[in-house]
Structures are given as C-alpha cells and as structure tokens.
C-alpha cells in the first residue's frame, strides 16, 4: 500500500533557502530580458528578411537596366547603320564592308534581308556567299507593321549553329519598309554584363526569354544556355517585377524578377533560402551563445552572492544557537550588513537579557530580604500585640489594624516600584480610616518629601499607633478633638521636623504605658530616619515630635 501524501495546512508556505530565492530572482530577471531580446531578434529577423527581399528585387532591377542599356546601345548602332548612304544607294558590298568594320571588335554580326525574307548579306560569312532564306514571315510582318525595333527570342542560328538572338529594325525609304536590318550580338555578352555586377556569394542572376529559354546567367552559362526554365517557375513571372518562392532542383529558393523594358525578358535574381537565411542563422546562433553565456554568468553570480548571503545568515544562526553572545563573538563581520545587524541585535538583546537576569536575581534577593524583614516585623507586632492584649478579641483587633497599616504602606511602595513614598501620602493613607467622616479631624500640612521604603514602613506604623491611641484616649475619643500634623525643613542646619499635636480633654494621664506603639514612636521611626523623637502628654493632649537630618529625605518635583 502506498502511504498517503501529507497535506500542508491551509495558508502554509513551502520554505526555501536564501540561495534558492536568489536563483529564482535571477531567473525572474533574466528570463524576461531573454524573452524581450528574442522578440527583438524576431522583429530584426523579419526586417532583415524584408531587406533581403528588397535587395534581391533592387538587384534584378539594376541588372534589367544594365541589359536595357546594352540593348539600347545596339539599337542605336543599328539605327546609325540604317541611315548609311551606301545602304540608301543599295551599294550592298560597300555597306557590308562598312558594317563589318564597325562591328569587327564587338563579336556581333549584321544581317540584311529584303521584305520577302531573303538574306542579302551576313557579316559572319564573306560577301557574295549564297545565303539561305531564313527570315520568318511573321518576324518580317511584325517589323513592317510596327516600323519599330524588335528583339527576338533565343534561337539557334542557321549559319552559325549557335544560340543567338536578333535585334531587328526596319530600313524605311519613302515611307515604306525596304529592308530589315538585324544585329546578331554575341549572346555571351549578356552573361558577362551580369557577371560584372556585384552579386552576393551564393546568389545567381538569370535572363530567360519569353519562351522560358535561358539567354544569360551570372555563372555556368555554358551549362545552362538554351535550357528551358521549369514551367511552374515561368508561370509565376507575372507583371513587370515581383517576388515569389519556388523549388528549383529540389532547393527552396527566392526569385526576384524585373522585366527588360526593351526585350520584355525577365531578369531574375535567384537565391536559395538556405543561403538567404545563413546570416540570420549565424545571428541566431551567436545570440543563442550570448543568451547562454549571459544566463550562465547570471546564475553563477547569483550562486556566488547567494552563497555569501546564505553563509552570513547561517553565521548569524550559528551565533544565536551557540549561546556565545559575548561582545567579541557578536562583533564579527560577515560582509552582509543585514546579517551583521542581526548579530549585533542578538548581542544587544543578550546584554539586555543578562542585565534583566541580574536585575531579577537582585530583585529576588531583595524580595527575600524584605520578606524576612516583613516577617520579623509581623512577628514582633504579633508578639507585642499578644503581650498587651487583654483578650483574644483585643489581640485580633490590634494585630489586624497593624497589618492593615502595613498593607496600606506597601500599596504606596508598589505604586512607586518600591523606591519609597511621599510623607503626605503616608499621612493621608494612615489617617483616612480614623477620620470617621469628619473632614476637620486632621489638619495636614507640609512640603512634598520623599522617604525610603524602610522609613515609609516605620512612619506608617508610627502614624497608625498615634491614630489608634488618639481613638482610644486622645483627640479622636472626644467630640471636637482635633489633630494637627505638620512637617517642615529648617533652614539652618537643613533638618527635618515633624509634629503631631492633639487638642482634647483627657480623662487622666496616659503616658505610663510602654508597649509596642511606644517603641515604634520613640525608637523604630526615628531610627529609620537617623533622628530622635519626643513623646509628651498634657491635659491638652498628646504631642509627638520627630527631628532628623535630610539624609533619608528628598524633595520631589
């Protein structure tokens, strides 16, 4: 059985390395550029093909112009001979010599025939040689009717037995055609005129007549002269110029043609598609190599940079996992700013964690110390309360009141992060439970001073004991009793002075008892401020004074 494939939870992503991401980024950048260049090259290929087609057509037009100039020159020569005086006087032998001398170096020959087609002279043979009647009646009729020059198709000459063509013009006397004068040029001259043109390698220029017989060629003319062009190719030569593709001798080729304006022969430029596409293939191959080199170089650079970046990330991970976050270890440089920043942050975080750990350890020790002190204070309060209590209920009441006083003091210390408390806050918190709704029971005045946690606890217990005593025996025990609480700072020397003054009638002396409260007022509280305290009783009420240096007190803003 096949184990079913585990599915990723919804929204989960497949993780990949930094190297993979950078290689993907490189491909994301390179591939669009390659695609863009491919489109650009494709457009370039199309434009180059169009340019090659235009070039082939322009070349055929130029070759056709060359052929026409050559034919025009021969027609001019014939026209010059046609107005010869000796010809006009029918002095044929003299005309023979004149024509022979004019064409001796050209390789061409002159023919003269009457309107019945009988040859009268031919400069290829001596004058007087018996000549055949070789002129076609249709040719004579065409020249006689149009009275214009005419160029024949390719044919094999009866006298020379070679492929020739004739340029024929009428010799007109008194409005009638008297003779037909013809020029039989050297047919190879057409091929030489093609060969003299700058034809690209692999290209060929061909001239064929209106019957499809090859008259001239830029190469191998001896092989192809007089041969017939395939009919399917000849049929595609329509109009005066154009382009078409055809298969010739099993090879796909481009044909660009322009007809001669004088002979109506198509002058054709023939280019095999393989030859035409060779420069483009070379460009594509070069571009492919360039693409390959660019892609390999980009991937190589991406691999190198990815290895450097992933190495920096792994170094940051190694530092984090090693637990060695000392300044020396976290000051290492990987060469990647972000990785260096991560390592530096790890170092700072480790330093902060160490500081927090040390602070937590200190806080735990401090808490333990304070807990021990608090337990000692509570134990002392319990012991003293038990000694002075007349009953269990009396013990519970006095002990509970002292614990509540200590609790209110700790609430103030917690609000200030156990840094201390304001004297004014201590006085108000401790006296509030004893005011019994009387707003005038306490008069509290003094500057804003800050005392240590230990002094806060001692003063809180002291004020609680004073309030408890006032509630039982002093100003809070009788109607209209008031308590004035003041503290101040003396100018010289700087010293702290606190007074608790009660105004109330009393039933009798109360200063004889020496219990827990008396110890807190006369010993514990002044000791916490490194000062001294005085407790006095009178018929007017109790007075408590505490003097201390400014060592344990600070003014607050």
- CATH domain class of the domain at 389-555: Alpha Beta
Proportion of beta-strand residues:
15-25%
Q: Let me know the CATH homologous superfamily of the domain at 389-555.
A: Histidine kinase-like ATPase, C-terminal domain
- Report the total helices: 13
End-to-end Cα distance, whole Å, is 80 Å
Which percent bin holds the helix content? 40-55%
Radius of gyration: 65 Å
Number of strands: 20
Cα shape: rod-shaped
Instruction: Point out poorly predicted stretches.
Output: 1-6
Strand arrangement in the largest pleated sheet:
2-1-7-6-3
CATH fold label of the domain at 389-555 = Heat Shock Protein 90
Which structural class do the helices and strands define?
alpha+beta
Main β-sheet: number of strands, strand sense, barrel status? 5 strands, antiparallel
* Overall pLDDT: 81
Give the name of the CATH architecture of the domain at 389-555.
Answer: 2-Layer Sandwich
What does this protein structure show overall?
The chain contains 13 helices and 20 strands. By secondary structure, the protein is of the alpha+beta class. Among the domains are: 66-185, Beta-Lactamase (2-Layer Sandwich), CATH 3.30.450.20; 189-278, Beta-Lactamase (2-Layer Sandwich), CATH 3.30.450; 389-555, Histidine kinase-like ATPase, C-terminal domain (Heat Shock Protein 90, 2-Layer Sandwich), CATH 3.30.565.10. Strands 2-1-7-6-3 form a 5-stranded antiparallel β-sheet, sandwiched between helices. It is rod-shaped. The model is unreliable at 1-6 (pLDDT under 50).
